[in-house]
């Protein structure tokens, strides 16, 4: 049996379009491999077994290359690196009292948020600058500058 070359092109386009619905960044590599298989079978008269083997091998290689070199690794993500926000300076937007929580605003988002709930050992007024001295769960402990 000989599969027409344009079947591979259509399959590749369908897989790439399916990537829009399922953003896994794997279907795009399978689709691109199918398109390249279609180009190969258009240029060279190869059997169905060779086409499927080429598509499978190319899919595996392209997916592994993506996972190895381009996908963010956990060490590149912000999770687990919360100590990097220590000593960051922000602006108090809701007053902080010794027994109540306030809010601090940072110029750039830290760990995905620019506004954080905070506590302090002393009262800090709105508009004061403060720095992060500790992280206690999802609350920052701050100190006035």
UniProtKB/TrEMBL annotation:
Superkingdom of this protein's organism: Bacteria
Stretch forming the signal peptide: none
Membrane spanning residue stretches: 7-36, 42-67
InterPro entries according to UniProt: Membrane_assoc_protease, NA-bd_OB-fold
Keywords: Membrane, Transmembrane, Transmembrane helix
Protein name: NfeD family protein
Lineage: Bacteria, Pseudomonadati, Pseudomonadota, Betaproteobacteria, Rhodocyclales
